[in-house]
Amino acid sequence: MEFSHALSxxxxxxxxxxxxxxxxxxxxxxxxxxxRRRPRIVASTAYLRDALxxxxxxxxxxxxCFDCVYLCCAxxxxxxxxxxxxxxxxxxxxxxxxxxxxxGSGEQLRTAELxxxxxxxxxxELPAVPIKTACTLAKSIRRKxxxxxx
Length: 150
Fold this sequence. Notes:
Four Helix Bundle (Hemerythrin (Met), subunit A); mainly alpha
């Protein structure tokens, strides 16, 4: 009797686990076609995730913000016909072309250029922008890039 009771309980737990898994799949965002088929956008997703991870150092998070923005801009610049393989990266030209194409604001361009200058200089100091602003920039640029490429 105890064995059948334990078996019933195990079956119930398995059913709950499967139900939870299926509900989780329904409520999570599914990546768009652009996110699945463009390697730079896939990588930008990983960089954005790390940029938002408060357990990482602030320096690493800033670098992830920049990498997310830069990869998005590079993808858009290439679609716009810019031969980015001929450029020395990172370059502000890619950022300017990308942000122009996705209609980034002047403030977004200034912040992205500030991050680019920081990366190019390889400064051990943090850039003169709050990490929250850099993360907001990365999220916005990634979202606008996906819309532009869709």
